Amino acid sequence: MSKDKIQEAKECMDKAAKYLKLSLLKWVPDYDSAADEYMKAATCFRVGKSYKESKECLMKASENYLQNGSLFHAAKCMDQAIIMAKEIGDTSDVFKLAMKASHYYQQHGSSGSASLLLNKAADILQPSDPDSAVKLLKEASNISGTEDSIGQAMEYTHKVARLLVKLNRYEEAENELKRQFDLVTEGGPTSNMGRVAVELFLLQLAKDDYVAAKKVLQEYGMQYCEQAEIYMLDSIINAYSDHDCAQIKKMLNSPFIKHMDVEFAVLAKNLADKWIVEPKEQVTNIENEETEAASTDFGGKLC
């Protein structure tokens, strides 16, 4: 079966070459027919599990569609070439292909297809090249925002924030979460914004900015959070103010936070692990100055 398909693919490639060949009676290549044959060849190679050859045929098909001005079909070929790149484990040109294909989709007027492609490419690149994945998702969000798909833009923006938290790039993640609130003011949906407020609150704690966390509660929490969430955030604020390690650990390990998106759940766990609760039996009146200093120096993290 595989050998038959590969042979069929080669025959299609030969036909494509003939469509492009010029002669005394044929002055202009038949790009459209050649592109169709390369597409057939790509399909045959894919069925025959020759993914590298399939990708090469898809790129040739894309080139010929571009020669004929068929932007959508050219972008679609690149879209499929990205999938083949994933199959062969070579994602070195995925970022470039995704950006170029999304540009062609937009020129054709298919912005939805452009943002979906960028999101798909970002998923492929996230394990090996998270920086490029962030760029693709930001572009997807920008495209959706300008095309009045604000809900979709918010979804991509939140995905960027989660990836940035995973990379410990908290300042950038904070900007992305705040952008979600800006998109709400432009008509975006308010569902789940209470959870976003909690995420922004946790980011401030991760930056050791207790005052900023309190502002998040006042500015966003009171507006978007449920009463139970407001109580939780307020309890954390009070516990930080009182240096109450046990209460901080308890609230940061609450079921609500544990069931947040994994990146923020891990962030909260790491925050909780900073707070060390000393057993009561270890608290003694040791006169050694060095030991006393170690036990009484809070430093913003240890009790």
Characterise this structure.
Among the domains are: 1-69; 192-277, no CATH class. Helices cover 75% and strands 0% of the residues. It has 16 helices and no strands. The protein has helices at residues 2-20, 31-47, 51-67, 71-88, 94-108, 111-125, 130-146, 150-166, 170-185, 193-206, 210-224, 227-242, 245-252, 255-258, 262-273, 289-296. The longest helix is centred in the N-terminal third of the chain and has 19 residues, at 2-20. Mean pLDDT is 89; it is low at 279-302.
Dominant shape: elongated
Overall strand count: 0
User: In what range is the share of β-strand residues?
Assistant: under 5%
Which percent bin holds the helix content?
over 70%
Main sheet: strands, sense, barrel: none
> What number is the mean pLDDT?
89
Distance between the ends: 69 Å
**Helical segment count:** 16
Order of helices and strands: HHHHHHHHHHHHHHHH
What structural class results from the helix and strand content? Answer: mainly alpha
Poorly predicted runs are 279-302
Radius of gyration from the CA trace? 28 Å
Characteristics of this structure?
single chain, 303 residues, mainly alpha, disordered C terminus
Overview in brief:
The protein is 75% helix and 0% strand. The chain has 303 residues and is mainly alpha-helical. The termini are far apart.
Topology:
Layout: H1 2-20, H2 31-47, H3 51-67, H4 71-88, H5 94-108, H6 111-125, H7 130-146, H8 150-166, H9 170-185, H10 193-206, H11 210-224, H12 227-242, H13 245-252, H14 255-258, H15 262-273, H16 289-296
Helix pairs in contact: 1-2, 2-3, 3-4, 4-5, 5-6, 6-7, 7-8, 8-9, 9-10, 10-11, 10-15, 11-12, 12-13, 13-15
